[in-house]
Amino acid sequence: MTAMAKPMAKPMPIPTPTSQPFWDALAEHRIRIQYSPSSKRWIFYPRVLAPGTLADDLEWREISGAGTLYTFTVCYRAVSPHFTDDVPQVLAVVEWDEGPRFSTEIVNAATEDLRVGMRVRPVFTDYPDAGVTMLRYEPA
């Protein structure tokens, strides 16, 4: 009799002091990203200074998370052994209504129904053992 292999723990993000407010908001099932009043634009990924202007005026503001599917690819081969049970996996980029783009995964959707330009909405996936909430998307 052989023992069943224990599933590999998936790698989880490790928040930094700069990105901690983003992860804290996800834990509350909210999305907060940075906004630069001097450049009047939303910023993502989290930074210390505003890109372009280097202004020290970045503020954390809540967004709805609603957006458009900008691009996607269907992975039939796991990107690492940790994701073997997840294939096919839909890796995607969502463009938030506020402008920035976010790399994510599409869930709760048949791959043949996905179209670039379709509306999507956030799905919060909690990993209590890791103390992390991941932001994924599904068709709106």
UniProtKB/TrEMBL annotation:
It comes from the Bacteria. Residues 60-124 form the ChsH2 C-terminal OB-fold domain. This is OB-fold domain-containing protein. It comes from Mycolicibacterium arenosum. The lineage of its organism: Bacteria, Bacillati, Actinomycetota, Actinomycetes, Mycobacteriales.
